[in-house]
Fold this sequence. Notes:
heterodimer, A: Amidase signature (AS) enzymes, eleven-stranded mixed beta sheet, 38% helix, 12% strand, globular, B: alpha+beta, 16 strands, elongated
Amino acid sequence: MRAGIPELAKRLRNREISAVELTKAYIDAIEKLNPTLNAYVHLTYDTALKAAEQADQMLKDDDAPMLCGIPMALKDNICTDGLPTTCCSKILKGFMPYYDAAVWEKLKKQGAVLLGKTNMDEFAMGSTSETSCYGAPLNPRNTDYVTGGSSGGSAAAVCANLAVYTLGSDTGGSIRQPASFCGVVGLKPTYGAVSRYGLIAYGSSLDQIGPLTNSVKDAAIVFDAIKGGDKRDQTSVDYDYGSSLAECLDRDVKGMRIGVAEEFFDGINPEIKSRIEEAVKLFERNGAVIESIRLPALKLSLPVYYIIACAEASSNLGRYDGIRYGHRTSSYASIDDMIVKTRGEGFGDEVKRRIMLGTYVLSSGYYDAYYKKACLIRDEINREFDAVFEKCDVLIAPTAPNTAFPLNYKSASPVEMYLSDICTVPVNIAGVPAISVPCGEDNKGLPIGMQIIGRRFDEATILQAAHFYEQSAGKVTGAYEGGAGI
Amino acid sequence: MNYEIVCGIETHIELATKTKIFCGCTTEFGGEPNTHCCPVCTGQPGSLPILNQKVVEYAIKAGLALNCKINTKSHMDRKNYVYPDLPKAYQISQYDEPLCEKGYIELDSGKRIGITRIHIEEDAGKLIHENGYTYIDYNRSGVPLIEIVSEPDISSAEEAREYAEKLQLIMRHIGISDCKMQEGSMRCDVNLSLRKPGDTHFGVRTEIKNINSLTFIQKAVMAEAERQADILDAGGTVVQQTMRYDEQTNSVAPMRDKENSDDYRYFPDPDILRFSIDDGKVEEIRASLPELPFDKLKRYVNVLGLPEATARQIFKYRKVAEFFEGALAEGAGVKNTANLIVGTIFSNMDTEEEKELFAVRISAAQFAALVKLADEKKINIGVAQGILQKMLDSGKPAEEFIKPEDLVGISDEQLESLCREAIDANQRAVDDVRNGKEKAINVMFGYIMKKTGGKADIRKAEDILRKLIGL
């Protein structure tokens, strides 16, 4: 049985293991497995060992934070001062920020040990992590399959125990879907719950940083450590969550009102559907009240998402021009030529596709038909969610309509790929929190994820429900053998 | 000219906030290139903007001073275009919900030039071309600007100048910008078209970009109106394009067009929340506004009784007006205060900038103490002028320079005997005066002033001289 964060924290305090030893165990595991799995794209062993030494000092104090000395990793789109941050894009190859993302600043202060930066779809655009300029990470459960994406490296690293926990980012499902594919827990917090400062933007009104972990409790602990308002992010909110989130996990689900919307189950793989239905029954048997609800606007989420995310991305990615940082083409005739060539060489096909799509929907003559209409529908989706949460405390849905794809399977068809985000994007559009927890395997042994969606800033309830399921359902997926063995 | 000028002006004004619009970097002018910068104002990946509330406040001040309606709900938009001086490849600006709308500036003629809108936005960096290379300085990137757009109500070059001059004066007065056109803290773009008198349709317009002095605005409007008139007279059509005014040749010519077309793909900036300004805040800002310059001018003339020419010299410089009013508050008389400022203090200041800066070494109270001596006729005005100059040179108060004899006026008896002396010593001049050459009396004034060191009351002396000469 793999140790969770509280257990590791206890061992570190009991001197059963030092932070340096723990870090070395993870480094050994990475050295052994990463050449195959490709979960990490930048390794930061030197700084990790230094941080571990400092953590060991901090741990002499009884009040050292829970995450002190725990080895972890960050998605490659989260800025780290003096360490590479490239969004797995050629256009940012060699880029080293001179500032820390707010989340990393917080974790660093708590004595976190950063092992490296994890693989992802280029600029978080994709559902398999195959658009990474470093090549796709492999799913540790079965290396013929993708990890999901875009936080595929973060999910794979946790799955293979190459990090105790990781942070990912979720714009349309990029934490939850790879968590589902790799059989780990992934939490997308409420929009505004975690500062985006230092997260390299994709779709600014949708992006949110969250943890990928091996258990719900770990997810609660990490979320607790990174949440909170930030003066540098105007969209962040200093919400008062009351006492520690990890402490309210053990409540039962008696009387909890759980909504199930049939729209979430349209076109879902039947195996997944039946696993989710079984999970719902488990809640019901334990006293939860199941409500059948409707979310008619849900079917519009996908086009709304791709319009808004791409519109914002087309503007956010305009700055990569080769002038100030990152890749610059080697020969050019003029400044315009330099910018055009740099971007042509630096961006991959999926990023170019989304920039073009976004540019198109914002163009004069098309703005009203696309962007403006998408914003109106977004409001409608928000209203529907608000109405549903009048009646329900949480919603239960699949995380993805399918389990992990074989490698290279869907890359050829962007639209089919976009369809696989159907269950996750509505959550980002509405800005509500959601968690994916493993809830079984398909006939190929690939993990299935259940998504629990909650009210804005009510992470406590979805964590509680997820924790309850995790504890009550018992072993739902096979464990990954290997990794750091801790 | 058989055409009517239809002209509107867009003015960019750099706000005098201490920090930039979206980060804490200083807005100070100059500085080593790229030293007033941070991840936010250089558009580093992952950085986010935070709207400076002072900028909103300053823009509202501008709006109130220009009689605008303040939109209490507003938001920021992104204006997307690619240029090396624009580090995010978009400028954060306001598109369809500007902070202020529907104001006006009243010209001396009483005609009102409408203000369409005022919005806030960020400035870009600066490209420096040197030795065949192009360098970029991002110190200016993120400096707050307001853009003030006028209605096309301006119908002459003189009105264009007056509009810009009044705008500059008002903005300086409310303290939101120094509006230095040479340094670029105020920049004007002039839109201009012609039409036949009585025609209700607008002609094709051109835009003259970045005019950097009030005189050039007037000249550029004239030059462009003439250019367009020549085209129209020859049966041609004006091409809608961006122009540049060349001050060397006093002519207007098309600018090299940027390749990209003008589709800025505006959309609301998702990083900055919509914001609202409550009415209380607007009223608070309104209450904090100083007296506006043209109200001040009216008061100087109508209430204080200053001649308009003198009042105009004082009201237009904020610091001068403050100094003037400061002296009055200390009890100094209006007329002597105004005359000593305009006559003596201004003679030390050659340029408009110096008057704008008004760096005097004495306080209004020290100045008032001197003026009061003249008001009470303890010293005469000539002495006061001399002492004032010494005070300005040294920064020391009046008592340092007043000699005991200055304080005593010349008695009437003394003056009369001096006048007799003057007549005896200047017999030819007396003859000239008798023969109708009135000006010859100045010779005797000169004699008396020389003898008294400028202390004699010249009007009294004139009366005595005329009596003695028998005029």
